[in-house]
């Protein structure tokens, strides 16, 4: 109860403290999100976060994204977003415009190539000429990373694009493909829920999870307010509901250097 | 309202029930129809809500995805695809905040035929709508507004209503027809009932309502029949009572007639014999006794006649003649009757007849004389000094029938005003003691008044105590103008010789009367043959030589009436007609009628005065030389 009253008080202070931004009633800040899920699911997850940010900072945000990754990336390339939750900005063609503000908290992510438990394949070398399912060409750990490894090993596979990670895993389970490349975190979740017995034949290096990057046109004080609000979410009781609903761990501080390995992968033509 | 009720009251029961039933059934049906329509309207709306909710649910994912990325083209495509399905009329995507239209799709559905305006008004024409807000992650992306016209629904309802009303109307007609039939069948017996009542009313007491197959009316009919039974019973009782009463009346009349006959006959003898005795020059003392006997007898006869008259009037059996009479003569006779008594009492008797009074009018001379005699008798009786005046005058009245006024005025004791109204009541005289002092039955005035009433007048009285009374009445009369029958006044001073040699047959069973009649006729010079019964009379008549028959009506053996009938039968075809005069103590008009019907020419009621006998005989006897004989 005391917690609750405290939170309301804090919220009130936050509003008061940030009233200055709210007064500047310009167009809302465009917050882009990479198409990891359907737009609706994305909105389901991100709109509450943006609402929270808006409440805390007094700034207004609008979720923006394209129907496809390409569209979203195009929008980013055209500078339509003030902030983006993505790592595609580290591609050569986009790199240098947006700056890292914070990153998705939690353990780093890995790219995994997995086969069915009863498959004779033991390593990527066994994949030569095999059908391997990928979510899409735009996937990073699930495509760019394993493809960089396969290219390095000079192993040609028959790529099958399933649209998303779930579809790719479904194809594996249905024995439509010999292997699948997915995000390690998603694989674990999927296997648990669908009782998938698999074997990992490749696990990539660790990569920092996706960052929130910001366009330099956003004023510094606003950018700082947003960064603080993002980082404070983990410890803010008000944000816990939002994060829980989004199944998100919150945000933690990150630097441009945290994503050098990502740049390297993209540099390899991922 | 009251006018409506009044109008309703003129409507027959059958139509009332029929109308009421029709209205109720129609009302209930319409209410039912209304409820059904309401339910189906509700159901229609519910169904619309459900189906549009499904549509909205199906649309949600696409809408959400497209709206989040701002892909309105996809939204438009999706909505276009849906708009041509189902009955959606309009699909809009609205901005939730201000409901401004983001995009909209309208169905190009063609306009269907609509229900009548009033039905649309009743059912409502507001389109059915469903709105779903599209909220993703707490952000409102707009409101999906689905709209469908209820045209199809209301058309369907209208068609149902039409069918219902049509079927309902047919059913209602059927019900009305069957109900009408049942009512007609059920109420038809009322007609039987009313006809029965009419028949009962018009006198058919034996008629009864036949068995009626409708319990309620059968009950009424039963009650009616019971009532008819009781009425018949009551009527029979009344009839019996009436017959008993009439029999009693007839017995009374017969008794009176018999009484009068039985009393008159000896009285006739007493008076006649007394007169004869007086005529035989008795000694002075004997003459005085005889005078007393005669006057007592006459008083008794007066009383008797009064009682008879009154009972006749009372029984409504007083008949009036309508024969030519001379008012002057009637008045003169009355005056003559009382002249000696006036002389005795030293009271003047003035008789005044206006010259304009016609010499012959139609009327009943006997009854007129009776009334005048009674009034003069009273006047003389109650007058001790002064005079009694009898006046006859014409009441001139233009354009009307002849009316004769008769006045009898006296200068007697008069009558107290409080007694005036009662003097015409029977058995009442001005003072009780007057009866004792002046004698009389007290019936005279009552009888006179009734006779005057029978003649078409009213007997009125004006009196002041001490200065006298005036009795007055006026009678409608018909003057007789033909003079052919005119006869000079009958006077008793006819030559004695007139009867000489003329033969009269007298049929009379009572010895005193035989002697009386024979002596009276003999004195007039008639030749008299006496027989004692009808058969003897027939035999005597058959021998011939008689010019007139005096026939007693009640005789042993062959009655006077039968004897007369036989004589007339025998005369039939011969051209003969012997005058026959009835002699009877039966003084009723009916008796007189019987006599005339039997063929008699005249009627002489006993007791009669000598003058009456002579007058009649002389009138009826054919002129000398014409005397016919029997067959």
Sum this structure up briefly.
The complex is a heterodimer of chains A (270) and B (631). Chain A is α/β, with parallel strands linked by helices and 270 residues long. Chain A is 42% helix and 18% strand.
Topology diagram in text:
The complex is a heterodimer of chains A (270) and B (631).
Chain A: H1 2-17, H2 19-23, E1 29-33, H3 39-57, E2 61-64, H4 69-77, E3 83-85, E4 99-104, E5 111-116, E6 131-134, H5 140-152, E7 158-161, H6 165-173, E8 179-183, H7 184-194, E9 198-203, E10 211-214, H8 220-232, H9 237-246, E11 251-252, H10 260-267
Helix pairs in contact in A: 3-9
Chain B: H1 2-9, H2 13-69, H3 72-83, E1 88-94, E2 101-106, H4 117-123, E3 128-136, E4 139-148, H5 151-201, H6 215-279, H7 284-314, E5 323-325, H8 327-345, E6 348-353, E7 361-363, H9 365-381, E8 387-394, E9 402-410, H10 417-420, H11 432-438, H12 444-454, E10 460-464, E11 468-479, E12 503-507, H13 511-523, E13 527-531, H14 534-543, E14 548-552, H15 560-571, E15 580-584, H16 589-598, E16 602-605, H17 610-620
Parallel strand pairs in B: 6-8, 12-13, 12-14, 14-15, 15-16
Antiparallel strand pairs in B: 1-2, 1-4, 3-4, 5-7, 7-11, 8-9, 9-11, 10-11
């Amino acid at each position: 109860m005391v917690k609750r009253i405290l939170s309301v008080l804090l919220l009130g202070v936050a509003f008061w403290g940030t009233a200055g931004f709210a007064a500047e009633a310009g167009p809302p800040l465009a917050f882009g999100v990479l198409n990891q899920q359907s737009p609706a699911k994305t909105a389901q997850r991100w709109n509450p976060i943006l609402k929270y940010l808006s409440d805390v900072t007094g700034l207004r945000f609008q979720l923006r994204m394209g129907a496809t990754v390409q569209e979203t990336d195009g929008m980013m390339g055209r500078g339509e977003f003030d902030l983006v939750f993505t790592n595609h900005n580290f591609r050569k063609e986009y790199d240098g415009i947006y700056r890292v503000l914070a990153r998705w908290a939690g353990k780093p992510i890995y790219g995994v190539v997995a086969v069915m438990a009863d498959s004779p394949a033991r390593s990527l070398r066994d994949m030569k000429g095999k059908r391997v399912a990928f979510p899409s060409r735009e996937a990073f750990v699930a495509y760019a990373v394993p493809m960089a490894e396969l290219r390095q090993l000079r192993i040609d596979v028959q790529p099958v694009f399933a649209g998303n990670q779930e579809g790719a895993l479904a194809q594996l389970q249905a024995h439509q493909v010999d292997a699948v490349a997915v995000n390690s975190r998603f694989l674990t979740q999927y296997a648990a829920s669908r009782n998938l017995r698999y074997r990992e034949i490749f696990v990539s290096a660790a990569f920092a999870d996706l960052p929130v990057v910001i366009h330099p046109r956003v004023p510094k004080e606003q950018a700082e307010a947003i960064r603080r609000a993002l980082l404070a979410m983990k410890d803010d009781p008000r944000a816990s509901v939002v994060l829980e609903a989004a199944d998100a761990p919150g945000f933690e501080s990150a630097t441009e250097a945290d994503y050098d390995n990502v740049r390297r992968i993209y540099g390899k033509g991922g | 309202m009251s006018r409506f009720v009044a109008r309703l009251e003129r409507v027959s029961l059958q139509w009332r029930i029929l109308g009421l039933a029709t209205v109720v059934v129609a009302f209930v049906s319409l209410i039912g129809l209304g409820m059904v329509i309401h339910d189906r309207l509700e159901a229609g709306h519910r169904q619309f809500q459900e189906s549009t909710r499904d549509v909205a649910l199906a649309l949600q994912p696409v809408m959400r995805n497209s709206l989040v990325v701002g892909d309105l083209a996809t939204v438009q495509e999706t909505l276009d695809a849906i708009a041509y399905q189902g009955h959606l009329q309009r699909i809009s995507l609205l901005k939730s905040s201000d409901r401004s239209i983001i995009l909209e799709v309208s169905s190009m559905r063609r306009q269907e035929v609509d229900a009548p305006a009033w039905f649309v008004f009743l059912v409502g024409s507001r389109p059915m709508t469903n709105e779903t807000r599209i909220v993703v992650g707490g952000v409102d992306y707009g409101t999906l507004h689905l709209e469908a016209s209820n045209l199809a629904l209301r058309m369907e309802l209208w068609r149902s209503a039409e069918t219902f009303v049509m079927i309902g109307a047919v059913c209602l007609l059927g019900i009305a027809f069957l109900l009408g039939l049942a009512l007609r069948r059920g109420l038809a017996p009322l007609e039987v009932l009313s006809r029965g009542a009419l028949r009962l009313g018009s006198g058919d007491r034996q008629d009864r309502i036949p068995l009626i197959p409708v319990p309620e009316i059968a009950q009424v009919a039963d009650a009616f029949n019971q009532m008819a039974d009781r009425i018949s019973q009551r009527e029979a009782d009344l009839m019996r009572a009436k017959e008993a009463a009439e029999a009693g009346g007839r017995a009374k009349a017969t008794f009176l007639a018999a009484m009068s006959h039985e009393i008159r006959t000896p009285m006739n003898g007493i008076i006649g014999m007394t007169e004869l005795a007086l005529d035989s020059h008795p000694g002075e003392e004997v003459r005085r006794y005889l005078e007393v006997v005669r006057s007592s007898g006459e008083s008794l006869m007066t009383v008797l006649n009064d009682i008879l008259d009154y009972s006749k009037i009372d029984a409504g059996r007083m008949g009036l003649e309508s024969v030519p009479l001379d008012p002057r003569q009637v008045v003169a006779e009355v005056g003559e009757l009382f002249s000696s008594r006036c002389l005795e009492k030293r009271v003047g008797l003035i008789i005044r007849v206006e010259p304009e009074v016609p010499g012959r009018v139609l009327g009943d001379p006997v009854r007129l004389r009776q009334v005048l005699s009674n009034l003069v008798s009273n006047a003389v009786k109650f007058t001790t000094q002064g005079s009694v005046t009898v006046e006859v005058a014409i009441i001139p009245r233009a354009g009307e029938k002849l009316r004769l006024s008769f006045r009898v005025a006296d200068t007697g004791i008069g009558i107290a005003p409080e007694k005036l109204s009662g003097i015409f009541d029977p058995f009442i005289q001005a003072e009780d003691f007057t009866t004792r002092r002046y004698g009389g039955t007290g019936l005279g005035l009552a009888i006179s008044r009734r006779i005057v009433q029978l003649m078409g007048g009213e007997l009125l009285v004006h009196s002041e105590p001490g200065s006298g009374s005036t009795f007055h009445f006026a009678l409608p009369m018909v003057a007789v103008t033909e003079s052919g029958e005119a006869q000079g006044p009958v006077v008793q001073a006819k030559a004695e010789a007139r009867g000489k040699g003329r033969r009269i047959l007298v049929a009379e069973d009572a010895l005193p009367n035989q002697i009386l009649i024979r002596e009276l006729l003999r004195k007039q010079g008639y030749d008299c043959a006496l027989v004692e019964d009808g058969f003897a009379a027939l035999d005597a008549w058959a021998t011939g030589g008689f010019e007139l028959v005096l026939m007693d009506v009640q005789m042993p053996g062959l009655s006077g009436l039968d004897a007369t009938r036989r004589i007339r039968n025998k005369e039939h075809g011969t051209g003969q007609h012997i005058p026959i005069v009835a002699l009877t103590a039966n003084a009723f008009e009916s008796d007189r009628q019987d006599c005339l019907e039997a063929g008699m020419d005249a009627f002489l009621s006993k007791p009669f005065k000598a003058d009456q006998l002579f007058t009649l005989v002389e009138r009826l006897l054919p002129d000398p030389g014409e005397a016919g004989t029997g067959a």
